[in-house]
Specification:
There is one protein chain. With 367 residues, this protein is of the alpha+beta class. The protein has 2 domains: 95 residues; 232 residues, 2-Layer Sandwich (BirA Bifunctional Protein, domain 2), CATH 3.30.930. The chain contains 11 helices and 9 strands.
């Protein structure tokens, strides 16, 4: 008896095979994306010449013309969907591999290798890195303010003009902007994105969040077009503080400044406030501390006055509150800020701030 040849599959069977190949292909790609090193093989398996889609394509010849059109359209749509999914997952896999490679190749720049001219710095005979003087000072400042009940907040170093100036009561063409020569970036419209000139924009971000009250300090790097000299650097570090609550007064500001001064410098060092002007505070003041070199007796460092200017402070201007939607009739607050590099210079008795960026290992080893 002669065996009968199997009949070619019909349209419904071919469409079911397309659907099955699509489901299996999605699953295979997802599994391979989660398994390092296997995604390229999975792509060939799902989309290559020996894939399930290729096998289904061979079945189209057994269909009538109308069936071939329907099955061909379904097959093309399934292939396109799998190709798009493969491209998406390929990008995800590549990014994961890049992150893994970067983590594996990362260098700790605080480590110091022992060379023929580098003596060991520990009893184990191995060289150990150390924190820069400015970083040490920043860490001490954060610890001091955290102990006083403040939180530490950070923000981006590239800011928009609104956060850096306008929200801080400095509209376009305001003369107060002349206090900073600004480094603008080629992003967006000209003159709209810049490297922040102070950490005050972080205060605006906190105020916008609307989670009152606020007791926070904001340390970070800032940028100005200053010519480097004994007391100025174009890239420097600053810490600012912000307190916003009901019933905050200038007396609270003076008390916080004095508490910080004695806590950070020691009980022999005190603070005083001198009237000044800042566009984002009213009233405003400069705060000075007893010269830590001469203990108030007068010396060259303090120009014989016995005091050293450390930073600025004042009550938050009502216009700043209004800019971020906070009612200045219900809330009040104060802000203060000073340079971390300047503070490090004063405490280390450095005559020239540029020593902080010379990267002279003989200098850095002293701290």
């Amino acid at each position: 008896m002669t065996p009968q040849a199997s009949s070619p599959p019909g349209l419904d069977e071919v469409l079911a095979a397309v659907d099955s190949a699509l489901r299996d292909g999605r699953r295979r790609l997802a599994e391979a994306a989660a398994t390092p090193g296997s995604f390229a093989a999975a792509q060939r398996e799902v989309l290559g010449k020996r894939s399930a889609l290729a096998s289904v394509n061979a079945l189209l010849g057994g269909l009538d013309p109308d069936g071939r059109r329907q099955a061909g359209a379904a097959l093309g749509a399934a292939r396109k969907e799998l190709e798009e999914e493969a491209n998406r997952l390929e990008a995800v896999v590549a990014e994961a591999e890049r992150r893994q490679r970067v983590a594996a190749e990362r260098l700790d720049l605080t480590e110091m290798a022992i060379g023929p001219k580098t003596p060991p710095l520990s009893h184990s005979g191995r060289g150990v890195g150390r924190l820069h003087l400015v970083t040490q000072t920043r860490d001490e400042l954060e610890d001091t303010f955290v102990a006083m009940g403040f939180a530490v907040a950070e923000g981006p170093e590239a800011e928009t003009d609104w956060y850096n100036f306008e929200a801080l009561n400095m509209p376009p063409a305001h003369p107060a902007r002349g206090m900073w020569d600004t480094l603008y970036l080629r992003l967006g419209e000209p003159g709209t994105v810049l490297l922040r000139t102070h950490t005050s924009p972080v205060q605006i971000h906190l105020l916008e969040a609307g989670e009152l009250p606020i007791y926070a300090v904001m340390p970070g790097r800032c940028y100005r077009r200053d010519t480097p000299d004994a007391r100025h650097l174009p890239v420097f570090h600053q810490i600012e503080g912000l307190v916003v609550d009901r019933g905050i007064t200038f007396g609270d500001l003076a008390g916080v400044i004095e508490a910080f001064t004695t806590s950070f410098f020691g009980p022999a060092i005190h603070s005083r406030l001198r009237p000044s002007y800042f566009p984002f505070t009213e009233p405003s003041a400069e705060f000075e501390v007893t010269c830590p070199i001469c203990r108030g007796e007068g010396c060259r460092t303090c120009s014989g006055s016995g005091w050293i200017e450390l930073g600025g402070c004042g009550m938050v201007d009502p216009n700043v509150f209004s800019a971020v939607g906070i009612d200045p009739e219900r809330y009040s607050g104060f802000a203060f800020g000073f340079g971390i590099d300047r503070l490090a210079q004063v405490r280390a008795e450095l005559s020239d701030m540029r020593a902080l960026i010379d990267n002279d290992i003989r200098f850095l080893r002293q701290f």
